[in-house]
Design a protein that fits this description.
The chain has helices at about 1-35, 50-60, 60-95, 100-110, and strands at about 35, 45-50. With about 110 residues, it is mostly helical. A two-stranded antiparallel ribbon has the order 1-2.
């Protein structure tokens, strides 16, 4: 049993490392760099300004409007995807005939 657990961890480690390097490191770098004032190409001469960029963002009406539109779009998209996904799952699992017939019924119901 213990060998299986180590095998599972050993098999998951490469994927976890790739996710960490490809997603978490750039996110952390972006968050740290957002605390500095710099120009592209001259990141070494950046000035630390702490949360001044965020204060400026929250005081800009156009930025707040863009943020509101983005949040509304995200909420709408997630809601529709959730309803469609649950609907497809229910239709596919409720049908006793697994195959083209149930997939066709599922597609017809969603359209």
């Amino acid at each position: 049993m213990i060998r299986r657990r180590y095998l599972a961890i050993f098999l998951i480690l490469p994927a976890a490392a790739i996710v960490f390097v490809a997603m978490i490191v750039p996110l952390g770098y972006a968050l740290v760099m957002s605390l500095f004032d710099y120009k592209l190409g001259s990141e070494t001469s950046a000035t630390f300004i702490f949360l001044k960029n965020y204060v400026r963002f929250l005081q800009d009406p156009l930025a707040l409007k863009s943020l509101g539109i983005t949040l509304a779009f995200t909420a709408l998209a997630l809601s529709l995807e959730l309803v469609a996904g649950v609907g497809m799952a229910v239709l596919l699992t409720a049908s006793r005939n697994v195959g083209r017939e149930s997939c066709g019924r599922c597609i017809r119901c969603l359209c």
